[in-house]
Structures are given as C-alpha cells and as structure tokens.
Amino acid sequence: MAHQGVKLLGAWASPYSRRVEIALKLKGIDYEFVAETLSPKSADILKYNPVHKKLPIFLHNGKPVVESLVIVEYIDETWSSGPSILPADPLGKANARFWAKFIDDKLMPAIMNIRRCQGEEQVKAIDEVVELFKLLENQLNGKKFFGGDTIGLVDITANFLALWLIIHQEIMGLQIVTEEKLPVFCKWIDEYLNSSVIKQSLPSKEELSAALLAYHKS
Amino acid sequence: MAHQGVKLLGAWASPYSRRVEIALKLKGIDYEFVAETLSPKSADILKYNPVHKKLPIFLHNGKPVVESLVIVEYIDETWSSGPSILPADPLGKANARFWAKFIDDKLMPAIMNIRRCQGEEQVKAIDEVVELFKLLENQLNGKKFFGGDTIGLVDITANFLALWLIIHQEIMGLQIVTEEKLPVFCKWIDEYLNSSVIKQSLPSKEELSAALLAYHKS
C-alpha cells in the first residue's frame, strides 16, 4: 500500500513516538515506520533533527517535522480525514494546548522526580504528583475523553500516564495512580486503553512490561 | 474606547506579558492592561491561573487563557484583523511552533545558566548560548523577520532576546550577543526594535534598563 510520502522515525517503546502513531491512526493515514535508536543515532536523526537529535521525526514528502506535539498538530491541520484532534474554536484549542503543555512541562517532570527520591521525600513527591493529577482529572468533568466523545490532543499527550506510568509503578511497587486516589482518571485509562484506535496504536501491557522490566534491571 | 471584553493581567517588565501586548497591537485590538505583581499575588491571579499562579493572564469576555504562547495563538485565531502571526500552511505553522519552543525550552534555560556560572565555566556557558543563537540565526536566512516580511510567532517569542538580554549583558559586563559573533541576529534586533508595532509594545531601553538595574542591585 502506498505511504502517501508519510514516514515516521521513532522508537517502539517511546510514548512520544506513539503519540504520532495515535494521531496517524485517528486520521486513517497509512505510514511507514522506521525503527530507530538514540544510541547510536542514525545519520537520518542527525540530518532531520540536528537541533535536538531526538525522536520522533515525522517526514511528509521528505520534509521533517519534529517535537511530538508539533507533529500531532501538523497532522491534524494537514489531514481533514477522521475526527479533529483539536477543537475547532480558539478557546477549546487554547485549553487543549494548555493541558498538553501541563502534562509535558509540569506533570512529567514531577513524575520523574519520584524516582530520584527515597523514603519520606518519595512519599511527598508522590503526593505532589497526585495533586497535579487531580487538576488534570478535573478537566474530564463527566466527559469520556479529554477531547469529549473522541480522543483529542490531551488524551494523546497523556498516553504515558495511561500505560507506561502504570507499568513503572507496578515494577517499582509504588502507589501513584490508584482507583482510590484518582477514580476519575482510572476510569479514563479504561476507556482510553479499550478504544479501538489506542489498541491499534500502543503496545500491549504485556509487551511493554517486558521491555520496561528490562530497562529497570539495566 | 470600548475594550471589546479584552483584558490583560500582566507585569510591566515581563517579556512574557509583552508578547501578548505585541500580538494585540499587531491585530489592532484595544485592551485593558491590569498591572499585577507576583508577590503578593492578587485574588485574580489565583482565580484565573490556579495551576501555575503566573502572569500573563488573558481574559476575553471573562474567559481566561494562560501561557504566553498559547495566548498569542489564541489571539491569532480569534482576530483576523491585522497580519497573521502564524503562517497559513501547516508546515510553516509547525516550523514557527518548533522555533518558539526552542527559544523557551532550550535557549532561555541556557541563558539563565550563564548567571549561575563563573570563570571558565561561564565562558563555556556563553559559548553554548552563542551556538544555540547561531541555529536560530540560520532561520532568518535573508528574511527581515523570522515571520518573513512581517513579525510572526518566533519574533514575538524572541522579544526577551532583542531587549532584555542586551540590557542584562551590558549590566553584567558580558559579551553574549555581539555584532562580531552574531551579525545576522544583531541586524534582526535593529529591524525588530525599530518596527512601529514593537516600538508601541515594548518599554524603551532607558526605562527597562533602569528597572533591570534595580533588579540586579537587589
């Protein structure tokens, strides 16, 4: 099948690469996936993302777009097939961008901080993360997804939280996202992981668990 | 004159608040400016930006939008008056967003790092910043502004680099952005600071110098 000049350079276990895959699957765009590693970095990574030398890299007719959220917006603006990933109105767009940025700039660093702490400090770091999750959870406000009835930018951005984080906390024996602390968010995880597009776009829990277990042991 | 329900809660000396002012002036939107401080924080800051408790906060018909770049895109999408701040085509939009993010996430932290270093370490920190500036400079590629013939998202994002940084380096006696090291970027600074919209939107060098000198002495 033709790839319409659409190529994704990504890493299998990367939630950032998977964001792009979700967007492409939502839009029904056929694409070629090129599995890359960050160590060593291929000539293509250095050529197409000389500034950050990171993945994912999206190529459309040979032109590169990088930074996962920039790519997702590019895909939404380029293909009108499938549901819109961002709302049509400027206020809805602004809110989606705000919460996507909140996940990347505020919640993710706070989660990374948990692993750096121990004992009492770790308990405090977990509490801080749960408080941030509650702010995010409030945005669901009775909706099925952050995007409403369909998966939107914030849902895509949150893919790490739905799967990777859950596996990490199981491996590390930590209680961060639990039914008791974050019931609304846990319901979202269920809806999200069971939606057909996400099932097609993310690795299974078993496969990813095996990969992350190897990472924790390394 | 009516304010069309447009209010900006900002700080006079903040480059982030000024980004929003540039966007509003480019679009010819009349607005009410409410001078705020971060210490103490007003009830409005806590009400409208409970997540970050930061400025600027943009209110349109009472609805808040926060994060300066999110606000600038909101303004561009809401008002078609005046020049477009982002290009019309998805690839142009993606590039503008990439370089705006580069300034905020890569260049600004590297600049902040200079002040934390001393001696040989500071020389190295400055060299690193100059290398990042060269990547940005390359994007001008013969154009008057990053946005082409008119001021765009990247130019707006770079307002700190055009004025605040120049004053800081003078006060601190450092050579970061110089004609010799970054001739193309210095030419952009000239064009930018002398454009009519920027003259109306930024404080004068004298006024800002006095404010930043007080900051350095504190």
Please tell me the overall pLDDT of chain A: 96
Spatial sequence of strands, sheet with the most strands of chain A? 2-1-3-4
What share of the residues of chain A lie within helices?
55-70%
| Distance between the first and last residues' Cα of chain A | 39 Å
Rg of chain A, Å, rounded: 17 Å
Question: Gist?
Answer:
Chains A, B: Its EC number is 2.5.1.18. Chain A has ten helices and four strands; from the N terminus they run E-H-E-H-E-E-H-H-H-H-H-H-H-H. With 218 residues, chain A is α+β, with helices and mostly antiparallel strands.
Task: Characterise this structure.
2 copies of one chain form a homodimer. Chain A has about 220 residues and is of the alpha+beta class. Chain A folds into 2 domains: about 5-80, Glutaredoxin (3-Layer(aba) Sandwich); about 90-215, Glutathione S-transferase Yfyf (Class Pi), Chain A, domain 2, CATH 1.20.1050. Chain A contains 10 helices and 4 strands; from the N terminus they run E-H-E-H-E-E-H-H-H-H-H-H-H-H. In chain A, strands 2-1-3-4 form a 4-stranded mixed beta sheet, covered by helices on one side. In chain A, strand 3 (about 55-60) and strand 4 (about 65) form a beta hairpin. In chain A, helix 1 (about 15-25) packs parallel to helix 3. The radius of gyration of chain A is 17 Å and the shape is globular. The N and C termini of chain A lie far apart (about 40 Å). The mean pLDDT of chain A is about 95.
